[in-house]
Amino acid sequence: MEINVELSGQLLPGVPRHQTLQFDQAVTVRDVAHLLGLDAEEVGLVVINGIQREMDDPVPPGGRLSFFPYLSGG
Asked: From start to end of the chain, where are the E strands?
């Protein structure tokens, strides 16, 4: 199955922000984060197909998975 991944902010500097990943079996958001080398503690928001999700939610085949860092401002 294919998943489209988007990384926002400075989650993984030097890594392409848009990637297409292939999996032979079902995966969760946490599985994808681990594969990419993301620290789950640095992820502030996860979105699958435009809907906010959690780290242990499954990613559907053909899904668009986006990771966002915690937001700060002032």
From this structure: 2-7, 18-22, 27-28, 43-48, 51-53, 58-59, 64-69
